[in-house]
Amino acid sequence: MRAARIDANQPIIVKAFRDLGWTVAHTHTVGAGFPDIVCSKSGTTILVEIKDGSKPPSARKLTKPEQDFHQLWQGALYIIESVEQVYELHRSLFVTHDRKIESPDRISIDDATEAEWDNAARAFRKNSAKSKVPRSSP
């Protein structure tokens, strides 16, 4: 197995998926352009390539193996750079206006507004900053 580096934001992105009820498998060590994580929820499975949104665009580009994999993959594959994008993706896949949803801070709400989701994202980041998540070393 190769020693694979992870993006600095990978732990917080994984936590956001898990807090929203997703099962997450780390696959960043697979290589050959395979995405960083595989996520599953309610019969939906997606591949996720994590890029660090705090880096300049040139540092967030897909590598050649990643580009090749993305071009050939026929299933759901997303590039995620932030916790907000996790929430947006989750909403686009699972939230409808005719059923109850649960926000990331565990407050049950109907028809969540953008402001409510933004507040939940801020609360999540604030709580996550308090608990240091260990990162693997390169």
Written overview of the protein:
Helix content is 35%, strand content 19%. It is of the alpha+beta class and 138 residues long. Residues 97-111 and 131-138 have low confidence and may be disordered. It contains four helices and six strands. It is globular, with a radius of gyration of 16 Å. It has a domain at 10-93: Trna Endonuclease, Chain: A, domain 1. The longest helix has 17 residues, at 114-130. It has a four-stranded mixed beta sheet. Strands 5-6 form a two-stranded antiparallel sheet. It has helices at 10-19, 64-72, 83-94, 114-130; strands at residues 23-26, 37-41, 44-50, 77-80, 100-102, 108-110. Strand 2 and strand 3 form a beta hairpin. Helix 1 (10-19) packs parallel to helix 3.
What is the level-2 CATH architecture name of the domain at 10-93?
Answer: 3-Layer(aba) Sandwich
What is the fold named in CATH at topology level of the domain at 10-93? Trna Endonuclease, Chain: A, domain 1
Query: What share of the residues lie within helices?
Result: 25-40%
Kindly estimate the percentage of residues that lie in beta strands according to DSSP.
15-25%
Element-level helix/strand string: HEEEHEHEEH
Q: How many extended strands?
A: 6
Number of helices: 4
Mean pLDDT, nearest integer?
Answer: 80
Cα end-to-end separation:
14 Å
The major sheet is characterized as: 4 strands, mixed
Flag low-confidence runs.
97-111, 131-138
Radius of gyration: 16 Å
Shape: globular
Classification by helices and strands: alpha+beta
Strand line-up across the major sheet: 1-2-3-4
Kindly provide the name of the CATH class of the domain at 10-93: Alpha Beta
